[in-house]
Every structure is written in structure tokens, then in C-alpha cells.
Fold each of these.
Amino acid sequence: MKKLVAGNWKMHGVAADLEQVRAIAEASRRFPSVDVALCVPATLIERAARAVPGFAIGAQDVHFAEKGAHTGCVCTAMLTDAGASLTIVGHSERRDSQRESDADVKAKSEAALGAGLGVILCVGESLAQREAGEAVRTASGQLDASLPHGEPAAAGVPDRLAVAYEPIWAIGTGKVASCEDIAEIHRALRERLVAAYGEAGDRVRILYGGSVKASNAPEIFAVADVDGALVGGASLSAEDFVPIIAAAAAVEAAPPIA
Ligand code: PGA
């Protein structure tokens, strides 16, 4: 499966950072075997999309309603109008700080796929859940309850849907899940995707996220069922992000190790 390496800029990025968007888009052309995307703040989507035509610029969240009285929110039509081609949904920082439920995330992913956008749907356990032996159950349960169903969302599966496994304790902490732990969760998520979508579930990309950087990317990308990465801090500059894209390209031809 072609790997997807997506950057999540979170609440970082103003006009001056378009230079990095350009540098990343330019460098990513050297790696045609890898899909690359940057999910930037909503305020930067239109300028980023104009700066790098043909390169995938995404959002970090979307409302599930078509329009209406939702102060501060952005709907799918606004994203496509601004030039976004995908969006993250269900990031743990939103599930936590904005109290987004699995049902919200499901509705968002259905709205986004239905509008023709790509979706990166995030799941992942907290440290307490992992220590209680609940990691597989938590991530699988979130996925089951957040996956998009029904037409027209189904038309976007598998090509426009990706799942990101992001253990909360590994996000922005420098701690990375072991290859064995990643393999175990990704295997469980793959089973849930196949249970939900049949054969198409085998072709939904499953990304790993949480402190991915150039130094650990090669071993993470070599794990079975790791079809790419969702990268936060290390996606903010071309200097840090491009080597991760290069690592994804390098393992394309190599067999999985776990
Ligand atoms: P990080 O963030 O790479 O900075 O850990 C990943 C994410 O939250 O998507």
C-alpha cells in the first residue's frame, strides 16, 4: 500500500511559515511513492493551497453540520472552498479539550467523506488505559464507534479514509510505542476495519502517530500494517519532515519486520 505521511501543524503557522509549506511540497516531489499532506490551521488553508497547487493541504477538524449557528466552527463546504482536500477528525486533543465523542467523530467523518474530502480518523489510548491492559480494547472500541457508515461516505472507503493510531502518552512527549505494541494495535484495528468494510477494510491505510521523527521513522514504517504516519512537531519544518517522507519511501520496497 502506498504510504501516507501527513503533518499536523496543530496551532502553529502564520504567513511566514508558508515558506516551509513550499519547501515540503517541493521536496515531496522527489518521493512519488509516498503520499504527503499537511494539515494546517484553518486560517492558513487557503493561502497554503494557493502556494502549492496540486499538493494536499488539509484541515485539523470539521463540523458535521452542513451550515448553521455554530460559532467558531468550520464546515466541509468551507474547507473545500478554501482548497483543502482532507481533514483530520477525532484527534485526542479535540476528544479531550473539546469533549468530542465517538458519535461526533463518526458524524464528522461521514460529513467529510460525503463532501469528497479525505479523512484521517484518530484513535488511541491514554497512559492509564495502557497500564490497565486496555490499549487494544480502547483503540478498537473507539474505531468501531467512530467509523463512517452509509452512503455517500462509503464511496470514500478505502481510498479517502485513513485511520491514525496515536497513543495519547506518546503525543508530543518524545515517548514512542514499541514496534511490538504498534504491531499489536494496528493488527487489531485492521481486523475492525475488515469487520466493518469487508475486503475494502484491508486497503484503508493505518498511520502511526506520536513523537515520530527522522530517527525512529525507519523502524516504525517497517512494522506490519503501518501504512504511514501522522506527524506533529516534526512536521513544522522541511528540515525535520522531509527525512520522514524519505524514510517512508525507503521502506516501500522492503518487507515488514513485525
Ligand atoms: P507529535 O504529534 O508528533 O508532536 O507527537 C502527533 C499528533 O498529535 O498528531
Amino acid sequence: MFRRVLLFTPALAFAQAPPVVVASFSILGGLAQQVLGPAATLNVMAGPEVDAHHFQARPSHIAMLRGAAMAIRNGWGFDGWFNRAAQAANFSGVMVTATDGLPPRPAQRGPGTHSHGPNDPHAWQDVAAARHYLRQIAAGAARLNLPGAAERAAAADARLAVLDAWVREQIATVPEARRVVLTSHDAFGYFGAAYGVRFLAPQGVSTQAEPSAQAVAALIREVRAQNITAVFIENMTNPATLNRLAQEAGVSVRGRLYADALSAPGGPAPDYEAMMRHNVSLMVTAMRG
Ligand code: ZN
């Protein structure tokens, strides 16, 4: 009898549907997938190529959170709409805030910039912060007793340690004075601080504020004076301002950086690691000249 009970219990556990986990946006979802594996069903609210700054949760998005066992948000004002969706869904599961415990970087407040909170929310662009995200997600998974999550988190962390070293090696191939990048919005502050690259952006940490003509003119002067060649648009930001700025400064746009959203599967940035390798490769080639 005792023997039969022992054999029966795990079978029962497998018969249950895996718990549902909801991540607020695609980059977080990509990291969560690595930790959760087959132990949970993952839904992502603001999917690939979607601007999560100003996402509008529809009833179908709110329904994702109904009965979900865990929800994962970035925090620092990036995905406030996710909190409102959780409230609307009467979400009562485990809420993971990926940035909890990280030192925040204050949002830049230059001319023409605009932000939604005191902290720059784009911490994931520093691989060390993404490793913190993995730890936060793993802690949430542990509260749900998700099998294999700790092992998968450790393996993902080891991959990110390799990635971090690779980013440093790549940046080191660019002469220090050339380590400047101009991009659409101020999403790379953590990247810049971690890897020693200066970023210029006509738009602040948000993506909707229109930069002033004065701020754009100042950037054009800076691009010319410093012979900046690393000029990029972003995957989820309107490229109009940046394209105009590049044209007036007489430089060419060198491609699309993945700032706040992954690409669709099959694109150049379907997961976090691919996104970082894509961005860094483009930046390094363009910074060299
Ligand atoms: Zn952003």
C-alpha cells in the first residue's frame, strides 16, 4: 500500500496543468522562459516589437492574469499598466519585480527629455542587471516549487556571465574616444555605465516625448564636431526624428538596435542573448568608423 502511494503521488503532480506565469514585456519574458522551462506556461503581455512604455492592456491581456500563479514586472515606472492589469484581474499570485534590490540610475533630465519617474527603468541593458532579473525570477519560481527552475536559472546565469565578458571584449576593440552612440531614446544608460560607452538620444527615457528643435540642433552639432558614426534607430521607436537628425548631420543610420523589445522569432533578437549580441556587434562596427 505504502509503495503504491509513493508511486501514485508524482503521477498526480504531472497530471495537473503547469501553472501560468505572465511577464509584462518581451525581454523579461525571454529571461523568464529560460528559468521556467516546461515547468510553467508563460504568457507575455507586451510582445516582440511592441513599445512597452505606453502599452494599453486590452481585456484579453487582463484575462492572462486571471488565475495566474506568478506575474513578473520590470518596475521603476516602466510597466505601470501591468500593475493596473493585475488589479483589474484580481491577481493574487506571486508578484516578482525584476528590478527589486538593484541600484537605480537616475533618469536623465536634459533639454527635450521627459520621463515617467525618478529612475531610468532600462536596467536590462546591463548584463549584470539581467542576471539579477534571473535571480528574482528564480526566487519567484522557488515560491511556486517549480521543478528544475533553480538548475535552469544557474545555467542561464552562467551563459550571461560569458555574454558579459564577450560584451567587454567587443567594446575594448574600439578606441576610447570613439565609444559614442547616438540612438532614438535614452534606453542605454545602464549599458553605457557598465561598458564605458557614451549614449546620446534626442528622446529621453520615454518614447513619446518629442524633443525640442533646440535639443535636436545641439545633437547635430555634437555629431559633426565629434565625427560620431554610430547612429541608430530602434525597433519599437518611431525613427522619424532620428532619420531627420542623421540627414541634417550628414551621417548614415547604421541599423536598428533592440532597446525595449525583442524581435519576433526568426528575427535578429528573439531572446535576450541574441539581442545583446546583435546590438553590440552593430554598435562596435559603427563606432569604429
Ligand atoms: Zn525605453
